Amino acid sequence: MTRLLYSLCGADADCRFSPHVWKVAMALSHKRLDFQEVPTPFTSIRSVEIGFSPTVPVINDNGELVRESFDIALYLEERYPERPSLFGGEGGKALSRAIEGYSQFILHPALAKILIMDIHDLLAPADQTYFRSSREARFGKTLEDVAAAADEELAGFSSKLEPLRHALKFQPWLGGDGPLFADYIVFGALQWARVASPKSLLAAGDPVHDWFERCLDLHDGQGRAAKAA
């Protein structure tokens, strides 16, 4: 049975932009596990594996269903211990939890405001309706009102990357000498922006820019193969 990864897509099935799916796609490749992506628009997620999850990513690993990106990474580490580690031990798991919190509570809220109209515009009409309704309920305002803060968020985004710049003074990867799941967490956030929006977040010469370029080249250029907006 083919290993499946259900991934969020736009009107173009090749436009797969979910930061959480990107974490898992990179983790699967890190583990050297073959998989097939199943592009899934917002309005089709509830039909994935007979309603297994309200969100993606979801993997079907030869009949074993797992959801949520961090839980999938933990599953892969336990299920395939003989393959390259995503954490490098318990310390790496703790590091990844901290990086997950940083990404979710610092980077993602800013990116959501910066990208919100770009994401809306790359969706099919039915998914645009869903996206508008769900995000306006989440933010308590219209998409247009959320997007009104995009320029301000973009101007301040670079300062939110200072913890990464500090770490990258001492090592080439957040994981140390090589990439670990902690790297894929932040990569997913920045790849979300790269695929969904033409807005420029990283300046040439920035250590985070250079790290992101290295991430794009990992696993035979897996990240770079996704078309930038």
TrEMBL record:
Pfam families: GST_C_7 (PF22041), GST_N_3 (PF13417). It comes from the Bacteria. CDD domains: GST_C_etherase_LigE (cd03202). Residues 94-214 form the Glutathione S-transferase UstS-like C-terminal domain. Residues 15-84 form the GST N-terminal domain. This is Glutathione S-transferase family protein. It comes from Rhizobium setariae. The lineage of its organism: Bacteria, Pseudomonadati, Pseudomonadota, Alphaproteobacteria, Hyphomicrobiales.
